[in-house]
Design brief:
- The complex is a heterodimer of chains A (182) and B (361).
- With 182 residues, chain A is mainly α.
- The longest helix of chain A has 23 residues.
- Chain A is globular, with a radius of gyration of 17 Å.
- Chain B is α+β, with helices and mostly antiparallel strands and 361 residues long.
- Chain B is 31% helix and 30% strand.
- Chain B is built from ten helices and 22 strands.
- In chain B, a hairpin with a 5-residue loop joins strand 4 and strand 5.
- The interface between A and B is large, with 74 and 73 residues.
Chain lengths: 182, 361
């Protein structure tokens, strides 16, 4: 197994609790990619995902002294990110759908800057078609390596709900991607 | 035997979170019927494929960090702190806490760390950076040495099985892949920034037109002003893949360069020299940054070499003719067993791990 320096992460969290800025910087460089990609799966807009990533880390730092005893630092970070994503999609529901980005794409025809606009493939579209909570459960399990019990804590739902949502996600994905999976 | 084999159970198997007992149970179930095999196969495929998608490029880490720092500095403005006295809006913890470190509190914080550690043990699948090697406090990581021109240099080495991230004195970021080494000076001069690479690294160079950034790798020199690119040297070949901006690559001591544009790559061979720049499949060359192995018509020998480097394991071929078999595909680097079972099935060979050695037969 490749060595993931978990001791280092634990050490960093301890330092962050003491408001050590250098430790926070290192923590940011470690987790910025996964948080950005998590958020992108909810807002499907690169600029928005970037803003929310920033906000997530700022909130994390400001609340670092409240770091929970039962929740790991990483789970706490995701909890913040998830709540920001959900609040954002409530405020501007248009942003939450991939179709929105696609229609924007057309209005920007000729300006095919992949950094600004990003075309989803069939697999991403299938994931984006899942209802929000279902998508959150699946994403946390598949892409962010969390176990069911941790997902339940991040999303504030019961273990049984995690299981139900996960079954639902798999069933929907299987159906939508049938042609690809044979 | 009362355990239900459902999709949740199978996911645990795929994620390699299952107990030995459950794995046995799973094997029996798999061999029970062809439907079971098919069900598992579909799930594995689904699991793998949803992650193969390309994602948008990441926001620039250094820029974003600067924004965060600026925003936090504003928030910690003392005027604001006074008006919101009881909220946790403070960038710096009050001084007295630092000195007033009661033993009781110490024990409590330690308990907290232990609890977090217990949870974190499960997080072995973070495919990203292992730790940041900051140039500011190098004392703990690297010892400087002095070269013949009496410059102070640092050498950071990522051994097999370890990746490192290095923040250079000019705030450029270097992601060093396994089994690679980067040498750089304590301070860059006013006119250039020169570093030397052995192995593979991804460079995110901070923009500074007045001081070109040069990477020496084997017999090549790549010159940039501010951009992102990947350089890889294994055996006699050096390959340079550009993801942003423009770079120019030279043979050492030569003044005729090859200009690369975004999305292009060039290879350099000691005997043949430079290839013509061609369009590159970027996601293939940058798969290692996402914790993946990407192989395209690669011989099993090279595949095993790369995997061995990553996991720091030795590879032994019992039958030399297996070496030249060809593999194409993208694999999650976090499950060795999974990779071996897929390669084994594809090529109809057996790959067994015993201790820190892999035997191909």
């Amino acid at each position: 197994m490749i060595k993931i320096d978990n001791d280092r992460v634990v050490f960093l969290l301890g330092k962050i609790k003491e408001k050590d800025e250098a430790a926070f910087k290192e923590f940011f460089f470690l987790f910025q990619p996964s948080i950005f990609y998590y958020l992108f799966k909810f807002v499907y807009n690169r600029a928005t995902a970037e803003d929310l990533t920033q906000e997530t880390f700022i909130k994390f730092w400001l609340n670092a002294n409240r770091l929970d005893l039962t929740l790991s630092g990483k789970a706490y970070l995701y909890k913040i990110a998830h709540n920001l994503a959900i609040n954002h999609t409530k405020r501007s529901p248009k942003d939450a759908t991939y179709e929105y980005e696609e229609s924007q794409m057309n209005s920007h025809s000729g300006k095919s800057n992949i950094d600004y606009l990003f075309l989803l493939d069939d697999y991403q579209k299938a994931v984006s078609s899942l209802p929000e909570r279902c998508r959150a459960v699946f994403t946390l399990c598949r892409f962010d390596g969390f176990e069911y019990s941790e997902i339940a804590e991040i999303l504030d739902i019961s273990l049984q709900t995690v299981k139900n949502q996960m079954s639902k996600a798999l069933a929907v994905l299987r159906k939508r991607l049938q042609a690809h999976l044979n | 035997m009362s355990k239900i084999i459902d999709s949740h159970f199978l996911i645990k198997i795929i994620k390699n979170e299952a107990s030995e007992e459950d794995k046995k149970l799973f094997e029996n179930w798999l061999n029970e019927s062809d439907e079971n095999k098919e069900e598992f196969g579909t799930l594995v495929l689904l699991w793998k494929k949803v992650a193969d998608s390309q994602m948008p490029s990441l926001p620039d880490q250094i820029l974003q960090w600067e924004k965060i720092r600026a925003e936090l500095a504003q928030l910690s403005n003392p005027v604001e702190e006074e008006t919101k006295s009881n909220t946790p809006l403070q960038l710096v913890k009050p001084e007295h806490k630092r000195f007033d470190f009661k033993p009781k509190e110490g024990v409590r914080e330690y308990a907290w760390v232990l609890k977090v550690a217990a949870v974190l043990i499960f997080f072995i699948s973070i495919p990203f950076l292992l730790f940041i090697n900051k140039s500011h406090d190098l004392s703990q990581q690297t010892k400087p040495f002095v070269n013949s021109q009496s410059e102070i240099l640092y050498a950071v080495e990522a051994e097999k099985g370890v990746r490192k991230t290095i923040l250079l004195p000019d705030e450029s970021l270097v992601y060093l892949n396994v089994d690679s080494k980067l040498t750089y000076p304590e301070k860059f001069t006013d006119s250039t920034r020169i570093v030397e690479l052995e192995g593979e690294a991804y460079f995110n160079v901070s923009h500074d037109v007045s001081r070109p950034f040069k990477v020496i790798c084997r017999n090549t020199v790549t010159v940039v002003k501010g951009t992102e690119f990947n350089i890889k040297n294994r055996n006699d070949e050096v390959s340079i893949v550009l993801t942003k901006g423009i770079v120019e690559t030279f043979k050492k001591n030569s003044s005729v360069g090859i200009e690369l544009k975004k999305g292009e790559m060039v290879t350099f061979d000691e005997k043949i020299g430079f290839s013509k720049p061609v369009k590159a499949n970027i996601s293939h060359y940058l798969a290692w940054r996402k914790g993946k192995f990407s192989f395209s018509h690669t011989s099993l020998e090279d595949v095993m070499d790369e995997i061995g480097r990553y996991y720091n394991i030795e590879v032994e071929f019992r039958n030399p003719s297996e070496r030249s078999k060809i593999i194409t595909g993208v694999f999650d680097a976090d499950s060795l067993e999974h990779i071996f079972s897929i390669i084994g099935l594809t090529l109809d060979i057996k790959i067994n791990l015993s201790g820190s050695k892999v035997i191909v037969q």
